[in-house]
Amino acid sequence: MNKCVMYYLLVLFTLIILTSCKYHLTNNKNNLTSDTLLTKTISFPNCLLKLNGNQFQKTDSFIFKTEDKTKVISIIDGNCPKCIINQLNNIDSIFNSILHDDDLLIFILNVSKQDSVFFMRNLQPSIKATGVILWDSNYNFERQNNLFTPNANLRTFMVNKKNRIIQYGNPVMKPDVIFEYKEKLKSLIK
Amino acid sequence: MKYVNLFVCLLMLLMVGCNSNNKGKTEKFQKHRDKIINVKDKIVDIKTNVLFGSCNLNIIDDILIVSETKPSGDKGIRLFNKNTFKYITSTGIIGKGPGEVTRQGGIKVDIKNRVFWVSDHGKMVMWKFPLDSVLNNEMYKPTIYLGLRKELFIERFDFLNDSIALGKAVRVLSNSSFEMAMAKLNLNTNKTGVYGYEHPEAVGKKTNSTFKLSLENNIYVNCYAFCDLMTICDLEGNLKYNIYGPDKLNNRGNKNAYFYGIDFINKHIIASYIGDVDIFFNEFKRPEGNFPSKFLVFDMEGNYEETIETGSKFTFFCIDEDNNRIIAYFADRENPLGYFNLKLN
After folding, report:
1. How far does B283 lie from chain A, in Å, by closest CA?
2. Cβ-based contacts of A112 with chain B (< 8 Å)
3. Which residue of B54, B103, B286 is the best one to mutate when testing the A interface, meaning the one whose CB has the most A CBs within 10 A?
4. Top-confidence residue, B247 or A30
5. Per-residue model confidence as pLDDT tens digits over B196-252
6. Residue B202: CA atoms inside 13 Å, Cβ hemisphere, count?
7. Mutate which: A121, A123, A144, vs B, most B CBs within 10 A
8. pLDDT by residue (tens digit) across A156-188?
9. Are B118 and B101 in contact (CB under 8 A)?
10. Where are the alpha helices (DSSP H) in chain A?
11. Do B72 and A118 make contact, defined as CB atoms within 8 angstroms?
């Protein structure tokens, strides 16, 4: 009788362990976040400025040009050399290898007003990216689109012609995600 | 027999007691630092005609030297009259040419010789700026420098005499990591060597500390950034006291930050203190470094006296001993530069 009770207890215990393991897996934070991100439609605030070399231009005509185009958008914090060299430049070179001529690569560069002189003097010369850089001095893009997140992986995403987010993930942080972008681009052509 | 056992027990207790008493001479534990004086309403804004960002503050004679951590103008160092806060001149021309500062780092003052030294992490040198030259020539470019391109280079220091500086040096471990060590620099030979006591358990990132030397009191003090610890040593490098705060060395993963800066006034040690998380997420969900909002005041033996709560986060500070006040650069006030008067016993 005792052995029987012990056997049932062991089975019950194993079941509890297995269930708790499964519970942990389904509560993956990324899955929850991806659902909310993939429903979003983004827009560009008018107060952004286009950084062309060391000159600033208004963005009205550029934003008009972006309509009806697939775009990869990456939000970069311009407060350290690593942000420019490891993020902006690397993301640019990775996406340039998969994007088509018609697609756009846009960087939203967050630089506060008080850091702007330091940035232009010390960090701007390190920019080697060919993508379009939109200067944001007060997190306007993220504020307007409700995109604030502590997870830097969610600050790079692709939007379709209707500006709806269809893929997200930073290929510098998660290299495999680039294949998913590739697949999404293929499916858009079809 | 009963009395023999009792006697042995008492003897053992006495021996243990004596032993802990010996240790107690150097090891001081402060569980509560709760004598708080609020000076939030007593901070006076300093309005200057010159704009500058976050900065280091130092005083030589009547001159307040403000050196920006990220210079935004053509020059990185501004000089003001410390009594009136009237702007005097600027120096430290930013650039890559001879005598120009490429990437401005820390600044250290030699009060006795009216000289200040400025680290240039672009050229990896430390420039010598004689105060009189700076005051007489607004386009002054230093010519004398010490090379910093070494495995161990001194970063936070004070002058023991004309040729020797003591302080905390950076030991480069790799492209992205370093640790700090107590060191002695000979300014004549530019040789840096390890010097004096280091807490044996403060290793790796926990070696990061701010340093201040007092010739008058024959001591130097290290306040640790990632340990709730302050060490007081004599000028020969021998330990006098280890002062432990409530968290002692229990900072797992170095997630908390403690001391930020240190200075002396009369017979008091004043240290800026965080005692909270090192990094937090701000309103834009970005990681941001924490800053202190309070000063801990100790006597010269490290005994806690009081806490001065400013109610605002500040980065750097200096003590104006003549006017008996603390001048600080506040990170969250509309007018960042301000001061308040000290009322210490």
Report:
1. 9
2. none
3. B286
4. B247
5. 999 999 999 999 999 999 999 999 999 999 999 999 999 999 999 999 999 999 999
6. 25
7. A121
8. 999 999 999 999 999 999 999 999 999 999 988
9. yes
10. 2-26, 29-37, 60-66, 81-82, 90-96, 116-118, 140-145, 177-189
11. yes
Phi then psi dihedrals of residue B16, to 5 deg:
-65, -40
Cβ–Cβ gap B284/A118 under 8 Å: no
User: pLDDT value at position A26?
Assistant: 45
Contacts of A115 in chain B (CB under 8 A): 70
Residues of B in contact with A148 (CB under 8 A): 284-285
Q: Are strands B36-38 and B304-309 parallel, antiparallel or unpaired?
A: parallel
Which among A77, A114, A118 is the nearest to B286, CB-wise?
A: A77
Q: ipTM of the predicted structure?
A: 0.75
Place B3 in a pLDDT band, splitting at 50, 70 and 90.
low
pLDDT band with cut points at 50, 70 and 90 for residue A83: confident
In CATH, which superfamily holds the domain spanning A2-189? Glutaredoxin (3.40.30.10)
Q: What is the pLDDT of residues B246-286, one digit of tens each?
A: 999 999 999 999 999 999 999 999 999 999 999 999 999 99
One-letter amino acid of B14: L
Q: Which architecture, in CATH terms, is B151-309?
A: 6 Propeller (2.120)
Minimal-distance CA residue of chain A relative to B176? A82
Rounded distance between C-alpha atoms, residue B262 and residue B270, angstroms = 6
B positions 26-85 inside 8 Å of A (CB): 53, 70-73
Beta strands in A78-131 (DSSP E): 104-110
Residue of B nearest to A141 (CA): B284
Pairs of CB atoms within 8 A across A/B:
21
Tokens in use for A24?
């942990």
pLDDT average, residue stretch B151-157: 89
| Residue B166, CA distances (Å) to A67, B113, B185, B191 in order | 62, 16, 6, 12
Domain ranges of chain A: 2-189
Structure tokens at B61: 């004679």
Contact, B220 vs B184, CB < 8 A?
A: no
Cα A54 to Cα A156: distance, rounded to the nearest angstrom: 24
**Cα–Cα dist B6/B10, whole Å:** 6
| Domain definitions of chain B by residue range | 151-309
Write out the H or E segment, with its range, that includes residue B38: strand B36-38
Residue carrying the six token digits 């909002």: B293
